Amino acid sequence: MDAPPPPPDEELPPPPPEMEQTVVHYPEINVKRSGPFATLRRAVTIFEKDLRTMAKHGLISSIIMVVFLGVVFTISSSLMAMALTFEFGEDGGDGEGINLPGATESVPPVSDPGSDRTVDAGTLVTLDGSGSTDNSDIVYYMWNFQESGRDIELYGDITTYRFMAVGDYEIMLMVVDSSWNIDEASFMLTVEGTGSDTMQPYASAGMSTDVVAGTTVDFNGSASTDDVGVVNWTWTFEDIVPRTLYGPEPSYTFENVGYFWVNLVVRDDAGNTGWGSVDVNIQPSNDDWQWPEARFDTESIVNIDATVTLDASESFDNMGSIAQYTWYIKHNATKWALTGQVATFEAVEWGPYEIKLAVRDSAGNTGTAESTVVALPVGIDVNTISWTATPLGQDVSFNLLTYVYGASLLASVIYIGGLFGKGFAHEIQKGTVKVLFFGPVSVTTVIFSKLLYPMVIGPFFIFPLVLVSMSPFNQSAGDILMITMVSYSLAVLVMVSAAYGSCMIYQAAKRMVLKPTVVTRIFMYLSLLGTMTVFEWFSFLLDMRLNTEMWGDLYLEHGATIATFSPFHQGGVLLSDLILNSGATPDWWVFIIPAVLIVAGVAASHRLYPDLFSRE
Description:
The protein is an alpha+beta fold. It contains 12 helices and 25 strands.
């Protein structure tokens, strides 16, 4: 159906009367500057979003990084711990010596036993080592030489010994200082005969003997002769421990199965000596020829006056039982024996206690095991390496404290400076490894909300990582946490100043010749490399590897100057005073540089990113 035509003009209503135009004035919109916490609130809001992103994409990668660094640091720390100790005494039953805590200094003492000399047989000789010197204190003197087939050990800086037998003696003096550094030196003592008698006596030790365990053997050296007359018979052999008998016809009961080579030294009145020997073969008292296995547990390092417990309960025999446990203990010139499966003794003096366990079955078969217990002065933590211990006995300023500080710095820089940068999750998804060490750190990734991200999340990974990886040193957890806190704080300071410094540089140059990412990396990495911790350690390793002194000299000439301008180095100075009471104070003026970067960068960021500082 067609629409009706429009009405003619005359049928339209008249227009409304003329109305006065009304102008409505709205109030001006005021743009307010944000309050002191407005930006922080905005940052927290963005941070919450980033946290959820990290939980979705970056948490697993962060944990993988912790495990990776934990393995690397633990291996390095174990090697460092080995470099900070040395072996004292003879090998134990497991083929290893005793590792003492690292020295606080590595300058060895200088042993001075005196000069060569000649004396007559029978002279009481004074051995004087008081001329030995050291930069600290010498705490142990041991003299060693052989006489008539016996090992003679004497102790003390001044001691005496009467030399009866003619001959040449090389007398060795070992001195040990309070930092466990050792030096040895020797002199030759010539003992001449008295009178005109120079003829050596003839030594007759008798006939070889084959008997069963438990038999008493009578020795007979009465057939020994001399042109003047034999005045001394000395019989020596090894039956678990050294044995010495005297006289022309001594007796000895052999309880242990074995083949014994018995030496006889005879001496006349002029000091001339003659040598002879006899074999003694001791066989089991029954058909059991299997030796028992000797094993025991004890502490390797104790403090003076500690009670040492010796436990041989892990020893065993093929026949099911052990008839006797005998402990032979030697400390300096003192020797004694204990019996029983478990025994104890008091370590009342400084130095090594040599322990030998002999376990014997009913047939006389005997097994042995050896170890050494070292008693250290009270006040020394026997389980902890000194913070000032230096590696491999080298006299370098790099020590355990700077090593732990360097590892803490590295972990902090990786996590704070790179691991949590914007784009990290994306890089991980692509499988890019470089982001772990060279992650983007720039204005867009760090400023404002991005600062909160690594600062809050980083410690949850950094602190456990450092604590676990430093476990080979058995140091106080409080000290390690203090070192890590300083490292973490300085890493945050350097990161923040680098980020804001990029704003300042961008604002000043109007365009960036170097990208902000590059600028922040340069600042952070140069600050780290300028640290004595890293610089000297690498120079030390290079010199050790190349057998040179070039890199160490380079550090001495330039390293300290470079390190002075590093906030990280100042953190090391602060730690040396907090932990070691060194009295050193940081050069606080060095922190003017990051302070200027932060203040000027904040001002520049107001101009570069005004929308972040204002709200409608």
